[in-house]
Amino acid sequence: MTSGMSRGAIYVVDDDASLRGELADALAARGFAVTAFADGRSLLEAAKTLAPGCIVLDLNMPGIDGMEVQRTLAQEGSPHKVVMLTGAGTISAAVAALQNGALDFLEKPFRLDSLDAVLDRALDRQRSEQADRARCAEAHARLDRLSEREHDVLCGLTLGLPNKIIAYRLGLSVRTVETYRANLMDKLAVGSLSEAVKLALAAEIEPRGAIVRTG
């Protein structure tokens, strides 16, 4: 079940067919794009093909339970956020789910408005993290254009080192460092040192070798 202009992708996983259908219909009526799964295995088999979204996951299911589904998703680096649904007497397990990366949990029975609010937070977090990953990937792609020496000079600039210190640590002349600096900024298509440093920080580069020595 899906809706056109959706508020986001929601995947309902519950072995209770009645609850699963009612919840999927209710969320679809509220503008979410909803897909329902009868068990954890079917969700895991499809997870990599699904648009990033939020998984509403029943904790207690036969076969692969919610905790195992969550662990598997985490191991696979899934971009989906998880909201766990729990029954009576499973609060300790729900807390463990939070510790293992679930965004939130709700006890059954729950108010639909409460779930709606949790899903909005989960989707906002998912979109933010997806944007961060995209920025990081784009930054890495641009940094891959650099030679090893240009990369070292950029690391030095990211550490806040002046050209003469970079030159000393790399065993180069200041003029050569200036040339590398100009070349790397051209390859990165940036117009200022601050843009180059921001790009390096987005890519989370780690200075190495001679550039980090303290002597």
Secondary-structure blueprint:
Elements (H helix, E strand, L loop, with lengths): L8 E5 L3 H13 L3 E5 L2 H7 L7 E5 L7 H10 L5 E6 L4 H9 L4 E4 L4 H32 L4 H11 L4 H8 L3 H15 L4 H10 L13
Parallel strand pairs: 1-2, 1-3, 3-4, 4-5
Helix pairs in contact: 2-3, 6-7, 6-8, 6-9, 7-8
Summed up, what is this model?
The protein is 53% helix and 12% strand. By secondary structure, the protein is α/β, with parallel strands linked by helices. The protein has two domains: 9-136, Response regulator (Rossmann fold, 3-Layer(aba) Sandwich); 145-212, Winged helix-like DNA-binding domain superfamily/Winged helix DNA-binding domain (Arc Repressor Mutant, subunit A), CATH 1.10.10.10.
Q: Can you walk me through this structure?
A:
Helix 4 links the parallel strand 4 and strand 5. With 215 residues, this protein is an alpha/beta fold. The chain is elongated and about 75 Å long. The protein folds into two domains: 128 residues, 3-Layer(aba) Sandwich (Rossmann fold), CATH 3.40.50.2300; 68 residues, Arc Repressor Mutant, subunit A (Orthogonal Bundle), CATH 1.10.10. The termini are far apart. The chain is built from nine helices and five strands. Helix content is 53%, strand content 12%. Helix 6 packs across helix 8. The model has no long low-confidence stretch (mean pLDDT 90). A five-stranded parallel sheet has the order 2-1-3-4-5, sandwiched between helices.
